[in-house]
Amino acid sequence: MATKKTTKKHNETLSEDKSSSALAKVVDNAAKKVKRAKVIRAIFTRERVIAEESDVARDLNNQSSFGTVLDSGKLQLSLTEALYLMEKKRIVIFDGRNKQLDFDSFVRKASRVEPGFWTRYAVFKDMRNRGYIIKTALKFGADFRVYDRGIKPGEDHARWIVYPVHEGEKYTWFDFAAKNRVAHSTKKRLMMGVVDDENDVTYWEIKWVRP
Fold first, then answer.
1. Catalytic residues
2. Are 65 and 103 in contact (CB under 8 A)?
3. pLDDT score recorded for residue 2
């Protein structure tokens, strides 16, 4: 009988340990979901969007390479990054008068700041949805720079520079040559992202070929 009581007590202890472990796991998962679900507040300011200083905002940079963390600790986002995160319901954006911007009002404001914004956004969104990290490339003389899948900025150089264009735009051979020179000087491949009227994007990689 003594053996049976000891065994029963041991089983009860194991059951309690399992229950405690399961409860801890549930609490941990719930905490992670709350963190993921937290919406970040941001302000539209001139040509950029500045997100609040928080761990959740910094995680967007650390984990997904969105924006740049400023010396103040706040996250600075490009307009394309900000709209993408708004669509994903990760941030809410306010103007300088503390009025919340919806999707259409943000696009109107961004289009006044950046001509051709919607075409650029279509390419940015498509690349992000395909799993590529895409960042601005103004210092290279291009719209975007794109990294191979699985590569973050700082781990390796970008593989492509990308120019978004609408399918109705006209380009001369001189335009292509100028863009290709930029790609060659930055040691990157040249890619054109052609956006149609349905916002579908087709990519063309362009190279010099010696006859």
1. 147, 157, 188
2. no
3. 44
Sheet of strand 40-45: strand arrangement:
68-69, 75-77, 48-51, 40-45, 91-94
- Asked if residue 79 lies in contact with residue 51, where contact means CB atoms within 8 angstroms, the answer is no
- Direct distance between the N- and C-terminal alpha carbons of the chain, in angstroms, rounded to an integer: 95
**What tokens appear for 90 in the block?**
């990760």
Pick the CATH number of 38-114 from 3.40.1170.20, 3.60.15.10, 1.10.10.10, 3.40.47.10: 3.40.1170.20
pTM of the predicted model as reported, rounded to 2 decimal places: 0.78
- 167, 84, 179, 85: which is closest to 124 by C-alpha? 84
Q: What is the per-residue pLDDT across 37-79, written as a single tens digit (0 to 9) for each? A: 589 999 999 889 999 999 999 999 999 999 999 999 999 999 9
Q: Phi, psi at residue 194, to the nearest 5°?
A: -95, 120
The size of the chain, in residues, is 211
Q: What is the pLDDT of residues 165-187, one digit of tens each?
A: 999 888 888 888 888 888 888 88
* Rounded-to-integer distance, Cα 202 and Cα 34, Å: 37
The domains spanning 38-114 and 116-211 adopt the same CATH topology:
no
